[in-house]
Amino acid sequence: MKVGFVSLIGRPNAGKSTLLNRVVGTKLAIVSDKPQTTRNRILAVRNYTGDPTAQVIFVDTPGIHRPLHRMNVRMVDMAVESIGDVDLIGLVRDATDGLGAGDRFVLESLAEARVPVILVLNKIDRVAKARLLPLIDWYCRQRDFAAIVPVSALTGDGVTILEREIVEQLPEGEALYPDDFLTDQPERVLAAETVREKVLRLTHAELPFTTAVVVDRFDEATEPGVLRLYCSILVERASQKPIVIGQGGAMVRRIGTEARQELERFFGTRVFLDLHVKVRADWRENDRILDLAGVAPRTRR
Ligand SMILES: Nc1nc2c(ncn2[C@@H]2O[C@H](COP(=O)(O)OP(=O)(O)O)[C@@H](O)[C@H]2O)c(=O)[nH]1
Ligand SMILES: [Mg+2]
């Protein structure tokens, strides 16, 4: 069988997390139209029963960008480090974007990669085929790609072709994970991320970049059949607190309702969700809070 790790690398918002979710058929990575949504490496295992059989371990990463905060340094480090640890790289590129400095920045991070790289041109549901040609032409002049595959992670168009291409490129080996293993994301992290996604989706302006969610208590024991979750939503400034709380608490209630419904589906159990909004200035520079919020745990560097 074919077995290997595939890292999804690219600019923020390219659609890496959407692609990961599409491939495994479950929403593991939260998705939003705000950059820097993914703050962690997320591992998801997909088994293929075809010929050859295969086990592909997909690794979603934070987008590669110039970091301005400690949080972002950790995120980018994590993405770049994953390049050294995998068998194949999927370079995910938003095909609706023009060429720019960001393309060079990502390619520079890949300069050391000694494994095959597949260029994944994403969002083809929103761009005419002819507009892909200059992009393909430019990329081909920068480095060798094992394949170039246009896809839409949103509609699924082209994704099967991409998966076949990936399996082809992987080495032979033995399965590394049991058949039913889906992800290494702890349940607390999945819960916190679901709450954070609702904050991202329902609030606007600068808030999304400056919010973290910490699970204070994850309690399955007190009441059978009910998961009791106590979470803090951290914001950086006192002025941001009312945005999350909303008029008479309407916003935080809505965040809570939407997150609870999704978590009930995901965990297959009733969920009691308690949300608190707290001000923690500069949490993005604070390693202790970054650790608590599960942001790109510090690596060897
Ligand atoms: N139209 C379209 N939108 C997409 C596609 N893939 C992702 N998106 C959207 O692009 C935004 C960023 O997606 P996300 O997966 O969070 O990007 P990431 O930062 O690379 O992980 C979200 O609003 C997605 O819904 C696609 O194939 N087509
Ligand atoms: Mg993402």
The name of the CATH superfamily of the largest domain reads P-loop containing nucleotide triphosphate hydrolases
**Rg calc:** 20 Å
Q: In CATH's first tier, which class of the largest domain applies?
A: Alpha Beta
N-end to C-end Cα span: 34 Å
Quaternary assembly: single chain
CATH architecture of the largest domain: 3-Layer(aba) Sandwich
Task: Walk me through this protein's architecture.
This protein has two domains: 2-169, P-loop containing nucleotide triphosphate hydrolases (Rossmann fold, 3-Layer(aba) Sandwich), CATH 3.40.50.300; 187-292, 2-Layer Sandwich (GMP Synthetase, Chain A, domain 3). A six-stranded mixed beta sheet has the order 2-3-1-4-5-6, sandwiched between helices. Strands 7-8-9 form a three-stranded mixed beta sheet. The chain has nine helices and nine strands. Helix content is 33%, strand content 23%. β5 (117-122), α4 and β6 (147-150) form a beta-alpha-beta unit. By secondary structure, the protein is α/β, with parallel strands linked by helices. The longest helix is centred in the last third of the chain and has 18 residues, at 250-267. Bound molecules: guanosine-5'-diphosphate and magnesium ion (MG). Residues 16-17, 29, 37-38 line the site of magnesium ion (MG). Magnesium ion binds next to α1.
